[in-house]
Amino acid sequence: MAAPPVVDLPFIDERLAQDLASGLAEVEKLLRTSVESEDAFVTEASKHLIEAGGKRFRAMLVLLAAQFGSPEAPEVVPGAVVIELTHLGSLYHDDVMDEAPVRRGSPSANARWDNTVAILTGDYLFAQASDILADLGAEVIRIQAQTFSRLVRGQIRETIGPRPGEDPVAHYIDVLADKTGSLIATSGRFGALLSGASPEIVDRLTRACEAIGVGWQLGDDLLDVASDSVESGKTPGTDLREGIRTLPVLYVLSSDAPEDARLRELLAGPVAEEDVEEALRLLRANPAMARARAELAAWVDRAREDLNGLPDIPARAAYLALCDYVVERSG
């Protein structure tokens, strides 16, 4: 079985690319066997999203971080599988909450079966991740528990929204850090820790990966507004249609500039289909986009600061170029 594609970063040297591809093949094998059950339906439901594809981005970050220690350490691949199972389990739950009909180009589990099956399948993946964790030691179990706590906290905070008097922008960034940044941070932490890297390297990679995760999600905010659907594969304005208040939208809504009055009116709730084109045109030309790009760049700069303190090996160059990619993909 072929390994999932490595993120297309041309700066990765040939040896590192081979190491990552080999590691991802091992991750893929263990990932599939870890969800097999004596019950054929449980196996089918659990493999539904695994077989739908995905770049295994978080697993790749585990393997990349392991380059700063002993990448062949036997705990590294199981650690990557734990991260991927956690991510996949959260996707089953996300699709229920979002009532999403499609995931990775295939019917979502809740659409193919029902919400109960999707929720329980996500729970099953979390349980299988815990089973693997039991062999990795108490420290790793504690890190995973803390990460899972942040994932849930982020989802709760997103669901209830900012409290009265709370800055909506600060609330939004905190949600991104918990919902997206935390698991990506733990990807770097697991790879470094399980490979035996020094505590300083573990801390630097943890912080850098969290910043990369927040930057990545902020880039998605910008892509929803600025992307060309042909090039990006995304439908521009999806968040606007759903009334999701991403960073550029929050900046506009916090503005009292008279020239923003029409845009504020459009963005006050879900944008009607007939108004999406106008909303996109106005938002693309608004200073809020530049402010959001500056926030993204600030997070990526935080990541670079930590990464620059790492040993000068190909994996560091890979992480630094990933930072460049996070900025460039946002347009």
Would you give an account of this structure?
The chain is mostly helical and 331 residues long. The chain folds into two domains: 14-171, Farnesyl Diphosphate Synthase; 198-307, no CATH class. The chain contains 16 helices and two strands. Strands 1-2 form a two-stranded antiparallel ribbon. Helix 1 crosses helix 3 (57-66) and helix 3 (57-66) packs across helix 8 (168-194). The two termini are 35 Å apart. The relative contact order is 0.11. The model is unreliable at 1-6 (pLDDT under 50).
List strands and helices in order, with pairings:
Elements lengths: L13 H21 L5 H12 L5 H10 L9 H23 L3 E2 L2 E2 L1 H4 L2 H19 L4 H23 L7 H27 L4 H28 L2 H4 L5 H4 L5 H7 L7 H7 L5 H12 L2 H21 L6 H15 L3
Antiparallel strand pairs: 1-2
Helix pairs in contact: 1-3, 1-4, 3-4, 3-8, 4-6, 4-8, 7-8, 8-9, 9-15, 9-16, 12-15, 15-16
